[in-house]
Fold:
Amino acid sequence: MPTAKRSADSPPRKLLGLFAAGALLLTALFIPHTATAAETPDTVLIDESFDAQTDPANFGFPTGASIGDGVLKVTENMRNYTTSVNRFDSSIKSEKTLDLRFDWKTSIASDGMKTGLEFRDDNGRLVFAIAATGSELRYAVTGPDSDSTSSPDSLNPTWIKTGFDRSKWYTVDLHLDFTLGRVQYSIATKEDAPQVMASGTGDITGEHLAKFVACNYYGTGVQSIDNFRLVRPGSAADGVLDGASVYAFGDSIVYGHRYPRGFMDFVAEREGMELTKYAVNGATVGPVSGPPEGKILTQIQSASPQAPDFVVFDGGTNDAIPLHEQDGYEIGAVSGSHDPGHFDTGTFAGSLEATIHAMKQKWPTAQLVYVPAHKLGSRDWDTQLALRAVALEAAEKWDVAVADVFADTTLDTRIEDHRVAYTFDNLVNGYPGTGGSGTHPNIAGITEFYVPVLTARLADLAGAATRRAQ
Structure:
């Protein structure tokens, strides 16, 4: 999804007036967030591993389905253009935000055959679909409405196609937001070093989740499903961030490294926020040798003067190395003054305070949110802790909110399994790979750890601002 920008003569932002009206009342909110993710846990609605027969039998599919060897099989012995429909419990139709994950494999044998799965609402509007021929993986978020009594060519979803290996299992991850009419999706191979096959965000017509449809479009090809998990995310913003504007500053963790979608892109896409990114790969907080645009303060100085609703930034990851290598550069201490003349900008602490001060001077109505990176296996641990202590102290002093990925998630790339599964250095098939150095979160790392923490924090601030302003 392209980075969204608002022109200088655009109407006032949705939340700008709310933050301004409640400015005198909001000081208590603008402190580092000390609550953990455990305070708003996901609510599990379905969690099925198919190790035994389900109730209702065969996961509710009336025909063409069976359970055995720990998996659910569908489209068994079904004729061309036929369907088998599992209707979800009526309570699920009332859910406005859902996270759905399942593993999927097809035994389709040739390009002359096609089977797949569709998720629809009670009126037949599409939520998401996945299918395959012998050589093509297909997925869709748009297409004609269907009552799912059959699956003729005329009612097929509008497929996006890519090549794939039909011998592999795939994991499908969906974030469904029916308030905004949007789905964020990821399809990746299920293996020790997963390869992302597709990732994106799309607008949908489906208004709730009602039907899970197994489709034998033509030919024969049994599909296997495992580890079907449906939850109500505890971090759901429920539309409160829709239309809010956000500027993002920092380093490659914000920008996206070799891939143009960083964690802020994923949040903005999900929540309908208007994002402008100024982050630069390799950026630092302090006076590290390199081009001037590499400093976060320079990013701020070159940014639009029009105030956004939120300013999200990170910083410190690229300062950790030169603190050991560059003579005269030290972590320093947070000043006892708010006068920038007292900041020691030869240190990390003084540079961070100068950076925050510049943000507040340039956009006094914007809500600032600092995002500490996850626990990094690629940086000295004691240096990380020292930088973190200074950053949190500065955030508290300057009334900056904190979306604390470091403290509020389990992502720790000092753990080998985490490093391999959740970070990348290079792209594979155009998407972030796996087995990185431990610094840059890949799509799984972003969606599982960064997005929930930041979404919850932004939604908390936006909701509180709205309530107090009213």
Q: What stands out?
A: The longest strand covers residues 97-106.
